[in-house]
Amino acid sequence: MRVERTTTVVSKAVADFLRHLRERNASPHTIKAYSGDLANFAAYAGSRGWKQIDHIVIRGFLSQLYEKGLGKTSVARSLAAVRSLYRWLAREGAVEQNPAKLVATPKLAKKLPRVPTIEEMNSVIDGAMPEVAAFPERDRIMFELLYGCGIRNSELTGINLDDIRLSAEAILIRGKGKKERYVPFGDSVKSALAAYLPLRQQTLAGFRKTSPALLINHRGGRLTTRSVGRIIKKIAVAKGLSPDVHPHTLRHAFGTHMLEEGADLRAIQELLGHERLATTQRYTQLTMKHVLQVYDQTHPRAK
Question: What secondary structure, in 3-state letters, does 220-254 show?
């Protein structure tokens, strides 16, 4: 017996929206997340038309997700998917209003990562690279740049050889929104570069290749952000750090340790390439314990 599948107004719109995302080459990850979230929304909406779906219906949908045991992050993501669907529908002229705008996003706890201590970072970088390091000289420069300059993974893999100004001890970094900034580096980055660059040249010569990229893989291609993440984790774990360590952890460590050592928040904002000071101020939460400790030890009224 053949079961007829009924197509509702919402499920048809969802299918069209997902097709539109595919045509625009949205990431497979986004499409997968949206299709799951919006399938749930279409099922909840049932046979209702757009005029019958108001913010109360959308709130009911979110309540149902909570009842199913979904966490705040998943519920917030579902709401974001519904908002995106409505934005697209408005552009297409299918709806006049976006009721999802009237629904508040679930408040998410700001989770700050556990940052390795200065001692832990030094023990990873100063000692010999562990056996798991497939290209030790390159892997050391990765750690030196992520932690020593506080750059993002995407910024690291985007560095070209020409971006390094050795005499000025600075690197040109291309950040978010194509914003450029110069980031200074110290002697440890200099010596790591001196050890790596001849081997990089050797690798490229072996494949009769040239590459503008600073960081290359064993075949002479530019290193990807995914590879960087994998290498950093593998080495960090081999050196006794938490398996939660990823490139962004080293950027957090850079900001936190600079603050702990007394750097000005504005200077850290510049170095990290943060658009807003509020983003940099998240580090103050991490170091508040340290600040209170210093206050207790040094302020005359605290004694």
Answer: CCECCHHHHHHHHHHHHHHCCCCCCCCHHHHHHHH
Identity of the residue numbered 138: R
Which sign does the torsion angle of CA 175, 129, 232, 158 carry? positive
3-state secondary structure (DSSP) of residue 213: strand
**How many whole angstroms separate alpha carbon 99 and alpha carbon 77?**
16
Q: What is the pLDDT of residue 4?
A: 39
Cβ–Cβ < 8 Å for 170, 184: yes
Q: Is the pLDDT of residue 290 over 60?
A: no
H-type alpha helices, the chain: 9-23, 28-45, 55-67, 72-92, 118-126, 136-149, 153-158, 187-206, 225-238, 247-260, 265-272, 277-280, 282-298
Return the active site residues: 152, 176, 248, 251, 274, 283
Q: What is the pLDDT of residue 301?
A: 66
Cα gap 116→3, rounded to integer Å = 57
Provide the token pair at 145.
Answer: 């740049």
Q: Is 184 helix (H, G, I), strand (E, B) or coil?
A: strand
Helices of type H across 94-170: 118-126, 136-149, 153-158
140: helix, coil or strand?
A: helix
Residues 6 or more apart whose Cβ sits within 8 Å of residue 44: 60, 61, 64
What's the pLDDT tens digit per position in 109-151? 655 557 888 888 988 888 889 999 999 999 999 999 999 999 9
| CA angle at 102 for the pair 98 and 105, rounded to the nearest 5° | 110
- What burial letters (b/e) apply to 61-94, b meaning 16+ CB within 10 Å? bbeebeeeebeeebbbbbbebbbbbbebbeeeee
Q: What is the DSSP letter of 133?
A: -
Burial of 278 (0-12, 13-18, 19+ CB in 10 A): exposed
Give the C-alpha distances (Å, rounded to integers) separating 211 from 92, 98, 127, 172, 216.
Answer: 44, 48, 30, 17, 8
Task: Quickly tell me which residue has 């595919």 as its tokens.
Answer: 22
